């Protein structure tokens, strides 16, 4: 047969054989062992290679399909395991250079044409060659072939191909770059390496790197890791080729004009201009598309400068590194803007190029290239002149919309402030005062530049010089209306930080400078000039910022400073503030109104600023003499503000108030601030309690609140940055509301009731009623009406402001009541008699309930029945209030506000009113079927709030008007009717959550009934009777389809809660020997009804894939109540009826079997699993329910085993379930028999022996797999806990020593390495507990198992040494876990030492193992100390022959460690204990 196949080579070369047959024969020959050919692999590879060469040289005509299959054939050979095995065994396969050249030619062809035929196959062949070292040698031996391949591969990638070949292409590029980098490392001819990189690789690699950096290919096309690796390889290749250490002298010759006389670099003399060569290749116009050229050059400039610095930056080369900078900067388009038209560059172009300039300047700063002194003394300020040219370019071509423009200027300022100082005025104008900046990122960059500017001049003590330039820009002619506010939040914050650090003298210099400019350049020309009015406002804002943010003077301030401050304040008042106020007193003319508004803004801003600063100086500095007079001597004048601004008459303020009241403006806000300042000064007076003072305070407070009342009715959505200078018509309402709210503690005491109600109304109206109104976290921090009001609502001091809090509560109830009234379907007058709390006016609500409670009395217990009767009659008939979609949204908004209030601390009248209001909302007809989610959400919110109310201090007040049974009946009657209208599935999560909320509310009602002890029998009797009626209605449908399953669930929830509350109550009364006959009679009926409803719901719920937790909890509650009431009566006969109770035993057993079989499925739902564990525990404790044919203990144990062994249950889920499993196991172990214990021990040690599973889990062999938390590791903890618990039962329970010894084999396979600190500590503790249980509870086993015990214990010792070693990197945050484990080791040593007779023979070996292992690591001192204390206890028991044995038998290195250990032992430990024994009695 072999002879037949040996003729295949002739058939392959035959012209008569078709190419289809040739390919089939070639494939068969390769894979068949029966085909015998001399050197078969080489023959077949050569045949395919020669065929392709003949085709591409036009010597052979082949179809494209045949050509592609030939490439695939070669690819299959190159990637075959057979070829790899042959090469590993040393066989040589010769690829021939002709094949490599064909591959290179094809890559070049693909990079130039659109054809993609055979691309994938050819690239795969190339990958096969490069990924196999024995084959890749054909490229590495012929370096020019690899360079050509790499160049063409990069050009192919630069064409931005798509599809499947992208990933393959970059894999090949990655391999090729890897080989070329190895060649570069071995290159001995730097000139050749430079020529290869600059001549062939520089251009395509730069384009490719730019495309990779720009994210041209998506994550699906190209892995990010591969993209990152290729970029790193390109950078490494460029650095190793163009910026070699051997080329440093050539760069110096070129850039520094130094003639080197060293003969060693003679070979480099012909390479005269390496930088020119690189730049010429960079700016060459023909190597990439025109649309990409500028971007590629820009990104490459930054890269090349970085690589140059990485290679050559060191002390002494700073000038060389700088000389590269102008040349590379000259490649950017912005450097030739003098010759080009500026509009030729778009904002995107500016952004990309300025980012590069920023990187260049940051590289200069980070590498300390610019030394100001060295540049001036040695180099004629060459660097300074270049940076000046860059600064002029940036300032002359302002790009205030580009963040990088600001960052470039900031970098230049950081290098040397003199670079920008000649153009400081233009810089301030273009980058700050005249800049139109709207984008958040750009504002941040602008703020950083201004911060650097102020910080620099503050350090230079030249802040007045900077302000002189700022004032010059502000006062120069300009279109002021187009300017943005000078001091927005960013610049204002920067200036504030700067001013706080300045000494008072510089502050005063700056202050006086602004005053002088104001007086000389603005004030004389202010009358009638709108632009001058705007300039005055800008200067006023600047003055306000300076005066408000300087450090305040105090008594320790030098007297000259205080006197100068006094003069400046007086000068400002007399020469600036009063003249500005005088301008406001002129008769108003319509054409001057805009001018007058701006002047009033400026005048009142300075007035408020002066008054505030004057007050603070008067309080803090006793030597300062206020122009307003001493605070303690001031007299409160009724109508005006002369005490704040001396010399301004009262009637003048009236005129100003009249004018400012017409507009929402800064002047109105400042006037409010002046009135507030007046109130503060009045409160400081010693006589402020006088009637005149109180009247003035009330009048001032009313003015402040009334001034902005109309503006708050506009519901503006504007935001304010908190700066006084930015208050405008748009932002005034926010600023006014902020002023009022910030000073509520002052204002609230002096507001009349109507003003307080108005304030509460505004507060409610401006609260965000939905999540969308609250704004996103990504927005710029700002102040809005909604944020201010939300802050008030959530402030813990809000309830302390009693008048406002009460008014707000009333406004809120009126808002809710108005929505409910809008949904009335019947006669409003009749409903007003039945539900008066919906129609009462705000001020009569409290009086209504106060009068009602007064009639009942403080301890009244009998509620009047008309409220309950009215509500019940309305609910049973058809509640006449129906809320649609918009009304539901409105009521939900109000409910969200109510949720934020502290309802548990309401006074009784408010408590009752809110309870009835929420109850009325809950029993209303909510929406249409389509709005079921909204209705459920509304109901859940109502009942949550009702439950919250009933936990409050005034909860008993509700029982003065309603019985608990009446609330119970009203609630369930309404819900039962509403449930029939809901279009929601019974297993829908929202419905199940709703049931949980209802159950919680009903349980709280019943618990409150028990706590108050108000007519227990009467209330519980009514509840049971009502539920009996409801049960009849719920099960009245003859067909299942006509029944109401949601109503049945509601009924089940109510019955369950009744059983949960009534059962313990009856048992408690019996234990306390209190009479409980009537209540005991109610319990069996409740159990009977619960069982009946539960059977219906269980039959329906069991059809689903997973039983709901509420259903399982109901079964548990029924079982608990059933067992409890039977134990109470001692029989199954009801005392009330004399009839035998129907047994639920069969039902319980059915539930038990279903839960056991479905327990693994419930593991994914912690609530359901917890409920199941509760039922199984109760079932276990009720032996009369156990099936006769089944052992409950064994069945439960096997069911739990299935949960732990189920691969679908995650490790995290098992950790979550561990407490519930532990509770069940505790009960099982308490009631289990000895046989049960033996069975558990057998399964834990044999059936649950996970050692094979751990050994087979290969993933545990490496750190990465351990970090992924494999499931077996999560099982380790519970198994070891069970093992320790069983072992602690002792030899009386576990009589077979073999079972105990099996525990050692388990412990030896528990993973202790490559664990996270928390996991390590947990596993270590559990292993220690198992060993300790064996040591203490199984002495007979220990007689024969000491070697096994020590093997396990030594694993713990060695793991502590490994984890406690000093690492090269990393923190010691996790050392506490290791220290705790080391303490456990020390404790175990002490336990072993206490059993000295058993371990005597093993003591020297324990010491030998300790020192052998400790020699390998350097421990943290704390860990070492604990371990040594433990081993010292063992050395105490070693006799002298043992010590001699160790000194002789240990290896030399270990012997030194032992010698050091023993010396420390003798010096510290032994001597200490001998001393203690010496002085012991």
Give your account of this protein's structure.
The chain has 1481 residues and is an all-alpha fold. The protein has 68 helices and two strands. Strands 1-2 form a two-stranded parallel sheet. Helix 7 crosses helix 8. The radius of gyration is 45 Å and the shape is globular.
Percent range for β-strand residues: under 5%
H/I helix tally? 68
This entry's quaternary arrangement is: single chain
Q: What does the main sheet amount to?
A: 2 strands, parallel
Distance between the termini: 101 Å
Arithmetic mean of pLDDT: 82
Shape, principal axes of CA atoms: globular
Total number of beta strands: 2
What helical percentage do the residues reach? 55-70%
Write the layout of secondary structure elements.
Elements: H1 2-5, H2 8-13, H3 19-31, H4 40-56, H5 64-78, H6 81-88, H7 97-112, H8 119-130, H9 133-141, H10 143-158, H11 165-186, H12 190-213, H13 224-242, H14 248-256, H15 274-283, H16 290-312, H17 318-329, H18 347-366, H19 372-378, H20 382-396, H21 403-415, H22 417-420, H23 424-433, H24 440-459, H25 463-475, H26 489-501, H27 504-522, H28 530-548, H29 559-583, H30 593-620, H31 650-660, H32 666-684, H33 691-707, H34 709-712, H35 732-742, H36 744-747, H37 753-765, H38 785-793, H39 802-822, H40 828-834, H41 842-856, H42 866-877, E1 882-883, H43 885-899, H44 908-923, E2 925-926, H45 932-949, H46 964-979, H47 989-1012, H48 1016-1034, H49 1045-1071, H50 1077-1101, H51 1109-1129, H52 1145-1162, H53 1166-1180, H54 1192-1205, H55 1211-1231, H56 1234-1247, H57 1251-1256, H58 1263-1267, H59 1271-1287, H60 1297-1309, H61 1317-1337, H62 1339-1363, H63 1375-1394, H64 1396-1399, H65 1403-1414, H66 1421-1435, H67 1440-1449, H68 1452-1478
Parallel strand pairs: 1-2
């Amino acid at each position: 047969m072999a002879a037949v196949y040996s003729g295949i080579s002739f058939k392959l070369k035959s012209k008569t054989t078709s190419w289809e047959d040739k390919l089939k024969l070639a494939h068969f020959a390769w894979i068949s062992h029966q085909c015998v050919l001399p050197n078969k692999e080489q023959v077949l590879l050569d045949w395919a290679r020669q065929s392709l060469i003949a085709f591409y040289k036009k010597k052979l005509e082949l179809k494209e399909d045949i050509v592609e299959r030939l490439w695939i054939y070669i690819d299959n050979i190159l990637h075959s395991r057979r070829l790899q095995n042959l090469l590993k065994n040393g066989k040589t396969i010769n690829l021939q250079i002709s094949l490599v050249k064909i591959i290179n030619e094809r890559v070049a062809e693909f990079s130039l044409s659109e054809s993609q035929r055979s691309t994938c196959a050819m690239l795969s062949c190339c990958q096969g060659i490069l990924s196999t070292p024995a084959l890749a040698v054909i490229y590495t031996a012929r370096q020019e072939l690899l360079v050509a391949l790499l160049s063409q591969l990069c050009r192919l990638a630069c064409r931005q191909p798509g599809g499947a070949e992208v990933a393959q292409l970059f894999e090949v590029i990655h391999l090729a770059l890897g080989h070329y980098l190895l060649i570069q490392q071995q290159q001995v001819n730097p000139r050749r390496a430079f020529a290869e990189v600059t001549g062939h690789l520089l251009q395509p690699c730069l384009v490719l790197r730019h495309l990779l950096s720009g994210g041209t290919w998506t994550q699906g096309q190209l892995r990010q890791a591969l993209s990152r690796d290729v970029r790193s390889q390109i950078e490494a290749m460029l650095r190793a080729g163009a910026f070699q250490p051997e080329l440093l002298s050539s760069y110096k010759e070129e850039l520094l004009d130094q003639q080197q006389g060293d003969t060693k670099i003679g070979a480099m003399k012909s390479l005269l201009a390496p930088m020119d060569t690189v730049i010429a290749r960079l700016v060459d116009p023909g190597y990439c598309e025109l649309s990409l050229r500028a971007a590629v050059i820009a990104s490459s400039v930054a890269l090349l400068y970085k690589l140059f610095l990485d290679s050559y930056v060191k002390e002494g080369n700073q000038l060389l590194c700088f000389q590269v900078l102008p040349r590379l900067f000259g490649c950017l388009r912005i450097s030739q803007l003098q010759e080009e038209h500026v509009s030729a560059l778009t904002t995107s172009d500016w952004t990309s190029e300025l980012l590069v300039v920023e990187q260049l300047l940051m590289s200069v700063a980070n590498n300390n290239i610019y030394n100001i002194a060295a540049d001036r003394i040695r180099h004629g300020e060459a660097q300074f002149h270049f940076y000046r040219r860059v600064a002029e370019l940036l300032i002359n071509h302002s790009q205030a919309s580009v963040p990088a423009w600001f960052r470039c200027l900031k970098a230049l300022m950081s290098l040397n402030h003199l670079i920008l100082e000649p153009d400081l005025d233009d810089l301030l104008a273009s980058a700050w005062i005249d800049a139109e900046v709207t984008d958040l990122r750009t504002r941040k960059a602008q703020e950083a530049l201004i911060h650097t500017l102020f910080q620099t001049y503050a350090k230079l003590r030249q802040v007045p010089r900077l302000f002189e330039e700022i004032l010059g820009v502000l006062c120069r002619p300009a279109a002021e209306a187009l300017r943005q506010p000078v001091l927005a939040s960013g610049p204002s914050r920067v200036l504030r930080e700067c001013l706080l650090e300045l000494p008072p003298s510089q502050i005063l210099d700056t202050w006086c400078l602004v005053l002088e400019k104001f007086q000389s350049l603005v004030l004389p020309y202010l009358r009638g000039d709108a632009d001058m009015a705007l300039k005055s406002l800008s200067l006023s804002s600047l003055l306000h910022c300076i005066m408000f943010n300087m450090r305040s003077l105090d008594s320790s301030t030098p007297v000259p400073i205080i006197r100068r401050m006094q003069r400046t304040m007086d000068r400002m008042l007399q020469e600036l503030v009063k003249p500005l106020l005088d301008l406001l007193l002129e008769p108003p003319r319509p054409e001057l109104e805009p001018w007058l508004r701006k002047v009033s803004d400026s005048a009142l801003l300075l007035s408020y600023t002066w008054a505030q600063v004057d007050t603070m100086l008067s309080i803090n500095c006793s030597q300062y003499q206020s122009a307003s007079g001493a605070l303690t001597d001031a007299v409160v004048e009724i109508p005006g503000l002369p005490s704040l601004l001396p010399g301004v008459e009262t009637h003048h303020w009236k005129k100003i108030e009249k004018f400012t009241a017409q507009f929402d403006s800064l002047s109105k806000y400042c006037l409010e601030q002046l009135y507030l300042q007046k109130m503060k000064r009045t409160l400081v007076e010693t006589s402020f309690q006088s009637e005149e003072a109180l009247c003035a305070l009330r009048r001032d407070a009313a003015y402040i609140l009334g001034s902005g009342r109309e503006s708050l009715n506009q519901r503006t959505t504007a935001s304010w940055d908190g700066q006084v200078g930015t208050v405008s018509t748009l932002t005034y309402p926010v600023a006014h509301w902020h002023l009022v709210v910030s000073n509520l503690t002052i204002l609230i005491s002096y507001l009349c009731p109507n003003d307080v109600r108005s304030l509460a109304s505004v507060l409610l109206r401006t609260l965000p009623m939905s999540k969308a109104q609250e704004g996103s976290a990504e927005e710029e921090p700002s102040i809005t009406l909604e944020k201010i009001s939300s802050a008030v609502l959530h402030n813990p001091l809000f309830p302390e402001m009693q008048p406002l809090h009460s008014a707000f509560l009333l406004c809120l109830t009126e808002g809710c009541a108005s929505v409910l009234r809008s949904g009335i379907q019947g006669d409003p007058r009749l409903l007003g008699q039945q539900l008066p709390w919906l129609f009462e006016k705000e001020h009569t609500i409290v009086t209504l309930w106060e009068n009602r409670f007064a009639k009942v009395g403080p301890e009244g217990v009998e509620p009047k029945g008309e409220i309950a009767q009215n509500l019940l009659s309305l609910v049973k008939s058809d509640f006449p209030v129906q809320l649609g979609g918009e009304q539901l949204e409105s009521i939900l908004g109000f409910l969200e506000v109510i949720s934020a209030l502290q309802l548990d601390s309401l006074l009784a009248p408010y408590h009752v009113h809110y309870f009835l209001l929420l109850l009325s909302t809950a029993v209303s007809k909510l929406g249409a079927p389509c709005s079921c989610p909204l209705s459920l959400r509304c109901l859940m919110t109502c009942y949550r709030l009702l439950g919250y109310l009933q936990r409050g201090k005034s909860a008993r007040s509700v029982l003065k008007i309603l019985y608990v049974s009446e609330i119970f009946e009203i609630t369930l009657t309404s819900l039962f009717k509403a449930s029939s209208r809901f279009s929601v599935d019974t297993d829908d999560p929202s419905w199940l959550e709703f049931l949980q909320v209802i159950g919680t509310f009903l349980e709280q009602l019943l618990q409150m009934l028990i706590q108050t002890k108000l007519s227990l029998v009467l209330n519980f009797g009514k509840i049971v009777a009502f539920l009996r009626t409801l049960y009849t209605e719920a099960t009245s449908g003859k067909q299942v389809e006509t029944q109401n399953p949601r109503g049945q669930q509601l009924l089940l929830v109510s019955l369950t809660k009744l059983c949960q509350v009534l059962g313990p109550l009856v048992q408690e009364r019996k234990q306390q020997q209190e009479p409980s006959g009537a209540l005991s009679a109610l319990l069996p009926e409740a159990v009977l009804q619960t069982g009946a409803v539960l059977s219906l719901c269980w039959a329906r719920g069991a059809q689903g894939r997973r039983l709901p937790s509420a259903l399982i909890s109901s079964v548990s509650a029924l079982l608990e109540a059933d067992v409890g009431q039977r134990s109470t009566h001692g029989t199954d006969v009801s005392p009330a009826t004399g009839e035998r109770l129907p047994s639920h035993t069969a039902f319980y057993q059915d539930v038990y079997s279903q839960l056991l079989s479905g327990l693994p499925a419930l593991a994914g739902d912690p609530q359901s699993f917890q409920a199941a564990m509760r039922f199984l525990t109760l079932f276990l404790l009720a032996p009369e329910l156990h099936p006769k044919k089944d052992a409950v203990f064994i069945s439960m144990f096997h069911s739990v085993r299935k949960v732990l062994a189920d691969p679908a249950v995650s490790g995290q889920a098992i950790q979550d379930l561990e407490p519930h499993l532990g509770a069940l196991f505790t009960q099982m172990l308490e009631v289990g028999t000895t046989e049960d214990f033996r069975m558990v021990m057998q399964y834990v040690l044999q059936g649950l022996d996970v050692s094979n599973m751990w050994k087979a889990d290969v993933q545990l062999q490496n750190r990465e797999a351990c970090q992924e938390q494999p499931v077996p590791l999560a099982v380790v903890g519970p198994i070891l806990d069970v093992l320790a618990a069983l072992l602690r039962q002792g030899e009386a329970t576990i009589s077979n020593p073999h079972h105990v010894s099996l525990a050692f084999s388990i412990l030896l396979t528990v993973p202790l390495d490559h664990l996270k600190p928390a996991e390590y500590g947990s596993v270590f503790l559990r292993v220690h507990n198992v060993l300790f249980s064996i040591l203490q509870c199984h002495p007979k086993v220990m007689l024969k198992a000491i070697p096994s015990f020590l093997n396990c214990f030594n694993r713990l010792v060695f793991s502590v040494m490994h984890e406690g070693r000093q690492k090269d990197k990393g923190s010691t945050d996790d050392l506490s876990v290791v220290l705790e484990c080391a303490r456990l080791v020390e404790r175990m040593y002490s336990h072993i030492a206490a059993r000295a007779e058993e371990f005597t023979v093993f003591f020297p070996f324990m010491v030998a193992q300790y020192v052998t292992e400790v020699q390998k690591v350097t421990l943290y001192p704390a860990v070492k100390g604990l371990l040594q204390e433990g081993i010292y206890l063992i050395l105490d028991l070693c006799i002298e022959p043992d010590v001699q044995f160790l000194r002789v038998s240990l290896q030399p290195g270990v012997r030194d460690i032992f010698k050091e250990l023993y010396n420390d032992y003798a010096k510290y430990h032994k001597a200490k204990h001998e001393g203690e024994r010496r002085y012991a009695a």
